[in-house]
Every structure is written in C-alpha cells, then in structure tokens.
Amino acid sequence: MEWSWTVVEAVLPKLAQGLIVTIQATFVGAFLAYVLGLGLALLKMSKIKVVAWISYWLGEFVRRTPLLVQLYFLFYVLPDLGIFLSPFVAGVIGLGVHFSAYTSEVYRAGIENVPKGQWEASRALNYNSYQTMRFVILPQSIPPMIPPLANYLITMFKETPLLSAITVIELFNAANIYSNSHYKYLEPMTLVGLFFLIVSVPSAYFAMRLEKHFKPKSMRG
C-alpha cells in the first residue's frame, strides 16, 4: 500500500466541500442545542412540579438514547408519519436536540450557582420572573458556562460523521464515497483525520483559554 499524491489531488476538493457541510451542521446544530438547552433548563427549574418532572425525564430520555438512533428516527421513521426532512435538516435537528439535553445541565448548574442574595435583591426591586432572569441571573451565570458550552461544540463537530448514516455528505461521508468508488482508503481517510485534527486542536486550545479566562479569580493559580 503506497501513498498516492494523485489520489490526494483528486479527493481534496470533495473533502473541502464535505468539511464546509460539517462546519455548517456543527454550528447550526450548536445554535439549536444552546437555545433548546436553555429552554429545557428553565422548564426543569419550573415551580410547577409536573412541568419540571416531564422536562427532567425528557432530557434523560434524549441523553440515554444514542444519537444514531435519533437520527434514524428523524430521517427514516418520520416519513411514515407524513413528515419529510432533508438529510441536512434531519441531521442538524438531531444534533441540536441530542446535545440540548447536555447543555441544559450546563445552564441549570450555572443558574443554580448564582448566589441566593441576587434572587432576593431582584424581588426587593419588584422584578418579575422574566426581568430577574434577563437582567440579573443570566448575565452572571452565562460567563462561567461558556467553556463547557464550547467543549460541547467541539464534541458536536467530532460527532458529525454519524450524519453519514442519513446520507448527509459531510467530511467523512465524502471520503467514504470516494474510497468505495475507487477502492482507495489510505489517502481519503488519512486526510479526514488530519482535517478533524486541524479544526479540533485549535478549538480545544481556544476552549482551554476560555476556561482559564472565565475561571473565578479565587481558583486561578
């Protein structure tokens, strides 16, 4: 088995297109995960016990079932119910819903770590629940959440090869299609690994910098 630069030259444009789809799916999925995660966290903290209970177990159901199964359900099962989604849309919804169950715990922990005195001060100012959350709690709780949320973004990026199961032509699937068509696996799969490293390693470093920046001063070395 020898390395062929001719194969590299032939497959690179396809991998570049696949990388663009991978990045798009990651960021759209992350946006959904962050928005849905915040909503789910607030529902879990609801004073209405039924709402909190349902929200908790909904999050647990999503976390305890594989992302691949959820993607199959969205793309292959929903059409039987009359709901048709394109591969890309099904993929980003799957990523967003799946990781919202994890980001919701990040939000919940961040909100609960805000000192109780802040809640009491809000009540003293006659703030309603929305004003308290919007102007007092979230501005204090979100900065410490940024590092773990950034880590989930990286995790989502590394999970995108699962989208190939529902025919999304992202980075891995672009290489796989070429490999199966030309019976060349060394170069395409090696390049896929390199592409993931090129994106993931700087992102992980950036996430570490964020964690250090937002770490409480009392915990800094």
TrEMBL record:
Its main location: membrane. It is a multi-pass membrane protein. Keywords: Amino-acid transport, Cell membrane, Membrane, Transmembrane, Transmembrane helix, Transport. The chain crosses the membrane at residues 20-43, 81-102, 191-210. It is found in: Cell inner membrane; Cell membrane. GO terms for cellular component: ATP-binding cassette (ABC) transporter complex. One of its GO terms (molecular function) is transmembrane transporter activity. InterPro entries: AA_ABC_transptr_permease_3TM, ArtM/GltK/GlnP/TcyL/YhdX-like, Ectoine_EhuD, MetI-like, MetI-like_sf. GO terms for biological process: amino acid transport. Gene3D superfamilies: MetI-like. Residues 19-207 form the ABC transmembrane type-1 domain. PANTHER family: L-CYSTINE TRANSPORT SYSTEM PERMEASE PROTEIN TCYL, MEMBRANE COMPONENT OF AMINO ACID ABC TRANSPORTER. Belongs to the binding-protein-dependent transport system permease family. HisMQ subfamily. This is Ectoine/hydroxyectoine ABC transporter permease subunit EhuD. It comes from Hwanghaeella grinnelliae. The lineage of its organism: Bacteria, Pseudomonadati, Pseudomonadota, Alphaproteobacteria, Rhodospirillales.
